[in-house]
Amino acid sequence: MSIQNNYYNLLMSGNDAAWTGTSWSMEYERVLESTNEHVRKQFASLDDEVLASLMALPTLFAYEKNVGAAAHVGRIVSINRRQREFGLTFSLDNAIAPILHETFIGLLPALDIDPKGWEVHRTHWAVKNVDLAEVLRGAGLVAGLSLEPSRRPPCVFISYSWDSLEHRQWVAQLATSLRQNGVEVILDQWHVARAWT
Length: 197
Fold this sequence. Notes:
Elements: E1 8-13, E2 23-27, H1 37-43, H2 48-55, E3 58-63, E4 72-81, E5 85-92, H3 101-107, E6 124-128, H4 132-138, E7 155-157, H5 165-180, E8 184-186, H6 188-191
Parallel strand pairs: 1-3, 7-8
Antiparallel strand pairs: 1-6, 2-5, 3-4, 4-5
């Protein structure tokens, strides 16, 4: 599949901490929502080739309108298939400053995001037929010619004993702190359904 530079991923979340770490998940049923039908057909199979193409696209990590938080630009660096969702690892581009909420709202038409419909009020993953770099350049947010791919963040697996609830909570807090500081974390509490507590 050959994808040109005039596409970008839009990941919209209503969780105000969604883009503070390095990983997130998106339910299969919300993938390609608010995507033009012609564009949707190009990506609809979501096979390995399509997923590789999606990872090659720049990504706008945005928050739903009611959250009011800044949007970020980066890349999806890995996609894992789970039972009901895709697990995503992402990297934000530190060379591009966060896009203030008011600025983002002003750019909605240029980004092909419906400012009046439900798109800005629903967690989803869309693919837009828009040159994201060109829109950001036009708004004075980037000076470069293109949005370069990002490197995959470091990844750690946390192994620990399930001695007590307090210990498990402490480990979860450590993992959350690592994510907030740019480290991808594999933690059984987040990735494995347990039958016991």
